[in-house]
């Protein structure tokens, strides 16, 4: 694999991968491109990618892939640096695009989760919120998913290299269920499913193995979460289960956040 | 006088009776003649098209309960093979796949090559399409073959396709083919391509032993497989639609349909028509919708509609596709075509953004295309009354109910002064 040392006359575009608050799963997707990895490493100069190599070369970078949400003052400073040194900034994954599962703290009282999890929360120096990258800097392209889809990642990189628009659907997961011939779990079984309001991209993986969609790719372009909630409630889904359904990896995505809040108990526990 | 198997040659227009093993023989003979045979099968709790090489793969004893946003199968252990109404997938998916690669190209230095991607040509036989599904294929024929631009991929799969229709005896609560003139009999609608037969064979299943029962079942002495259990009086009255259908019948035991058999078929079809779960008043419907494009009902349905696109995906006549060019890192390029939906923002994306950005405008596009502008475009309705969009809509939006609501609040009926010109 090509090393990160700058080679004089190397005309290949440079690629940097940055991590904020996240689990590394999305950047791991890049290493997961096993068959395409050599071609990828030949087509771009990987300038900064700590999951692959300790070596790092200074910017500016043609493309930066940003994983993770902003949860500390230091993150908030660093993301501006990344933005300044990147021609194209692509956020990858639910953390970077919607605040991730750690964004659940946004729905709790200040420090509540930290006190529940850590013996000495006083050692933590984090913000009260976990926010998506786009709330801090301009984002050129968002790649959704928890984790992102390998095929979509390659599509984005190859499209950027070819100078074309990447093909990324904004429609529902349902259309992918229908395309692969999965019989609808909601209609034929009454299984709660977020597919009708969730962005396609995974290829409708979960319904194909008999699990309702968890909403990993966040809200579709046209999500009508209210109408889906009405159906799920009429099927007998309890309100707390409904709130949990909208509050997973993309709890902070505006459409899911709004729907979750709409079904919160009116009187918070004392 | 006892009826004897296979005396006179079968002709187009004839009505003959066969047993279950006769049907089995037809399916096996089609496969033997090189057809790729598909038909109704049960998978994941639904009746969907699948490979069928004998009667044993058909949905025996399977019945359905359908309602807006709901579908359930019941397995009753009886012998009926066609005691269900259409499921989520139609034969559109067989002839016009949800996703396909059109061509691949590769650049090699100065050279570039383009290879068209074609699937192996093997004629298709659809065994057990419902009359509304036949009507849907004819609508697709008009759309994809009848205009100035012929879809040659669809044409290649459709050409020479053998169609055996299973007339309907058990419509679902979501069915309204009688309103659309597409069922429950196979010959219910006028042929859209009068020069050709609409189907090769049409069968009406009779499971009881009342009218037309006879001791000499045509299976007696049949030269066909006997591994399939035959219920008493379980038989099919076959209407012959084509020469090749007639020639196929010569391979199985059959008798001329008795007056009682014909009456039994008529009874099945009449009961089906009487049980139709829904209806759609088509009288003046196309202009009615056209002059009500500002109806407040579109806003009302927009509150309920998920814009999920399920209705367009399950509809057997929706033909919209999108084409993506995909590159890879080695310089190979591929053009792929996949189904698209007017519920997608990308579907109406023009410079600057989508034209149909509101949910109301998207639902209106769907309903008015199916029931109104399709007539302008293709000279027929885009709806065959199969009810799929009603059952498989996750929130149970019912196109017949929406159309009726718009009729009830028709601007023209409300006040002559408010009449809008047709678009
Ligand atoms: S299973 Fe879920 S994602 Fe699939 S079609 Fe049904 S509602 Fe949509
Ligand atoms: S509009 Fe609905 S009922 Fe009519 S053909 Fe399409 S899916 Fe069937
Ligand atoms: S209703 Fe929509 S998806 Fe169906 S054919 Fe018309 S525009 Fe296309
Ligand atoms: S009418 Fe139903 S199936 Fe169609 S887009 Fe709206 S919610 Fe989805």
Q: Could you give a quick summary of the protein structure above?
A:
Chain A is an alpha/beta fold. Chain A contains 12 helices and 5 strands. At the A-B interface, helix 2, helix 6, helix 7, helix 8 and helix 10 of A face strand 5, helix 10 and strand 13 of B.
Protein architecture, described:
- The complex is a heterodimer of chains A (270) and B (423).
- Chain A is α/β, with parallel strands linked by helices and 270 residues long.
- Chain A has twelve helices and five strands.
- Chain A has two domains: 149 residues, NADH:ubiquinone oxidoreductase-like, 20kDa subunit (Rossmann fold, 3-Layer(aba) Sandwich); 90 residues, no CATH class.
- Chain A is 36% helix and 10% strand.
- Chain A has a five-stranded parallel beta sheet, with helices on both faces.
- In chain A, helix 3 links the parallel strand 3 and strand 4.
- The longest helix of chain A is centred in the middle third of the chain and has 13 residues.
- The radius of gyration of chain A is 20 Å and the shape is globular.
- Chain B is an alpha+beta fold and 423 residues long.
- Chain B has 14 helices and 16 strands.
- The longest helix of chain B has 20 residues.
- The site of one iron/sulfur cluster has 10 residues of chain B, from helix 11.
- The site of one iron/sulfur cluster (SF4) has 13 residues of chain B, from helix 12.
Distance between the termini of chain B: 64 Å
Order of strands across the main sheet of chain A = 2-1-3-4-5
Bound molecules: iron/sulfur cluster
**Shape of chain B, please?**
globular
Helical percentage of chain B: 25-40%
Multimeric state: heterodimer
Structural class, from helix and strand content of chain B? alpha+beta
Q: Work out the helix count of chain A.
A: 12
The ordered string of helix (H) and strand (E) elements of chain B is: EHEEEEHEEEHHEHEEHEHHHHEEEEHHHH
Mean pLDDT rating of chain A: 93
Secondary-structure blueprint of this entry?
The complex is a heterodimer of chains A (270) and B (423).
Chain A: E1 14-19, H1 25-31, H2 34-43, E2 45-48, E3 61-67, H3 73-84, E4 86-92, H4 93-98, H5 112-117, E5 141-143, H6 150-162, H7 173-180, H8 185-189, H9 205-208, H10 225-234, H11 239-246, H12 254-262
Parallel strand pairs in A: 1-2, 1-3, 3-4, 4-5
Helix pairs in contact in A: 11-12
Chain B: E1 15-19, H1 20-32, E2 36-43, E3 46-51, E4 62-67, E5 70-75, H2 92-95, E6 99-108, E7 111-116, E8 124-129, H3 131-145, H4 152-158, E9 162-166, H5 177-180, E10 201-206, E11 235-240, H6 243-249, E12 255-256, H7 259-274, H8 285-290, H9 297-304, H10 310-314, E13 321-327, E14 332-339, E15 349-350, E16 353-354, H11 359-378, H12 388-391, H13 399-408, H14 411-414
Helix pairs in contact in B: 9-11
Bound molecules: iron/sulfur cluster (4 copies).
């Amino acid at each position: 694999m090509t090393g990160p040392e700058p080679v004089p006359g190397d005309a290949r575009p440079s690629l940097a991968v940055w991590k904020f608050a996240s689990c590394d799963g999305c950047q791991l997707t890049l290493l997961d491109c096993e068959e395409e990895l050599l071609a990828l490493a030949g087509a771009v100069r990987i300038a900064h990618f700590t999951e692959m190599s300790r070596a790092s070369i200074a910017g500016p970078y043609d493309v930066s892939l940003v994983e993770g949400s902003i949860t500390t003052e230091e993150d908030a400073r660093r993301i501006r640096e990344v933005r300044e040194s990147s021609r194209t900034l692509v956020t990858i994954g639910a953390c970077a695009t919607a605040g991730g599962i750690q964004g659940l703290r946004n729905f709790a009282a200040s420090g509540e989760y930290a006190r529940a999890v850590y013996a000495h929360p006083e050692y933590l120096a984090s913000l009260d919120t976990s926010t998506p990258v786009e709330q801090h800097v301009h984002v050129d392209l968002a790649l959704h998913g928890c984790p992102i889809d390998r095929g979509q990642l390659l599509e984005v990189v190859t499209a950027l290299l070819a100078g074309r628009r990447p093909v990324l659907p904004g429609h529902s997961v349902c259309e992918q269920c229908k395309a692969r011939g999965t019989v609808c779990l909601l209609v034929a079984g009454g299984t709660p499913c977020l597919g009708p309001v969730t962005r396609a991209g995974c290829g409708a993986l979960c319904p194909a193995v008999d699990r309702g969609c968890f909403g990993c790719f966040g809200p579709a372009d046209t999500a009508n979460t209210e109408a889906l909630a009405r159906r799920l409630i009429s099927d007998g889904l309890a309100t707390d289960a409904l709130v949990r359904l909208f509050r997973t990896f993309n709890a902070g995505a505006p459409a899911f956040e709004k729907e979750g809040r709409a079904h919160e108990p009116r009187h918070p526990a004392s | 006088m006892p009826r004897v198997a296979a005396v006179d040659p079968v002709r187009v227009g004839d009505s003959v009776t066969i047993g279950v093993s006769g049907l089995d023989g037809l399916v096996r003979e089609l496969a033997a003649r090189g057809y790729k045979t598909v038909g109704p099968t049960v998978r994941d709790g639904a009746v969907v098209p699948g490979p069928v090489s004998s009667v044993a793969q058909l949905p025996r004893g399977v019945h359905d309960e359908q309602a807006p946003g709901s579908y359930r199968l019941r397995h009753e252990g009886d012998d009926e093979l066609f005691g269900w109404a259409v499921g989520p997938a139609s034969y559109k998916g067989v002839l016009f796949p949800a996703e396909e690669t059109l061509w691949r190209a590769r650049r090699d230095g100065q050279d570039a090559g383009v290879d068209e991607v074609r699937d192996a040509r093997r004629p298709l036989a659809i065994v057990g399409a419902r009359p509304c599904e036949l009507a849907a294929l004819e609508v697709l024929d008009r759309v994809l073959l009848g205009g100035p631009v012929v879809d040659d991929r669809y044409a290649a799969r459709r050409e020479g396709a053998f169609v055996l229709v299973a007339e309907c005896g058990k419509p679902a609560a979501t069915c309204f083919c009688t309103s659309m003139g597409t069922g429950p009999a196979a010959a219910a609608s006028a042929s859209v391509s009068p020069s050709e037969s609409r189907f090769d064979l049409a069968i009406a299943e009779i499971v009881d032993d009342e009218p037309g029962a006879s001791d000499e079942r045509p299976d007696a002495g049949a030269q066909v497989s006997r591994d399939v259990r035959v219920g008493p009086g379980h038989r099919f009255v076959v209407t012959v639609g084509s020469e090749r259908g007639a020639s196929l019948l010569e391979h199985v035991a059959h008798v001329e349909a008795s007056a009682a058999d014909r009456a039994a078929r008529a009874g099945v079809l009449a009961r089906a028509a009487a049980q139709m779960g829904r209806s759609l008043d088509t009288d003046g419907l196309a202009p009615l919708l056209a002059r009500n494009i500002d109806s407040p009902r579109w806003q009302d349905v927009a509150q309920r509609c998920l814009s999920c696109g399920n209705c367009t995906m399950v509809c057997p006549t929706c033909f919209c596709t999108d084409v993506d060019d995909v590159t890879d890192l080695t310089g190979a390029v591929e053009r792929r075509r996949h189904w698209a939906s007017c519920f997608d923002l990308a579907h109406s994306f023009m410079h600057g953004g989508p034209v149909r950005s509101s949910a109301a405008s998207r639902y209106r596009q769907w309903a008015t295309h199916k029931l109104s502008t399709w007539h302008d475009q293709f000279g027929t309705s885009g709806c065959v009354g199969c009810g799929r969009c009603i059952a498989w809509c996750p929130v149970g939006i019912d196109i017949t109910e929406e159309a009726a609501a718009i009729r009830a609040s028709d601007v023209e009926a409300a006040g002559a002064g408010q009449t809008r010109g047709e678009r």
